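[step 3/7] fold_predict: job queued, chain A
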Amino acid sequence: MRIQQHPILGPLADAATFEIIFDGKPIPARKGDTIASALVANGIKVFRYTPKRNEPRSLFCAIGRCTDCAMTVDGVPNLRTCITPAQPGMVVQTQRGLGEWNAQREGSD
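[step 4/7] structure written:
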């Protein structure tokens, strides 16, 4: 859900849209979104599960100071999605525990 009319900022400005892939499903995002803001705008509330108790976590501080919004993005675990800009085609996955490194590094065998 997005705020369409803010009492101070006014109406939501037009922006280009694109898709990111969340847990295998395409979801819309807008230019200027962080990954977290795109997820929240699409009703997604759980970003990761804790390592010890498998408890769900979501957006908390929204300024990159905590790790509650950490997710696996393009195969890289523990990215703070509240400060990471959404880009077309990004693959975002709910992170379980500490996450696994799945990224392919350029030039590595």
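[step 5/7] annotate
The beta strands are 5-6, 10-11, 17-22, 25-30, 48-49, 56-57, 70-73, 76-80, 91-93, 95-96.
Residues 19-96 form a domain with the Ubiquitin-like (UB roll) fold (CATH 3.10.20.440).
exit 0
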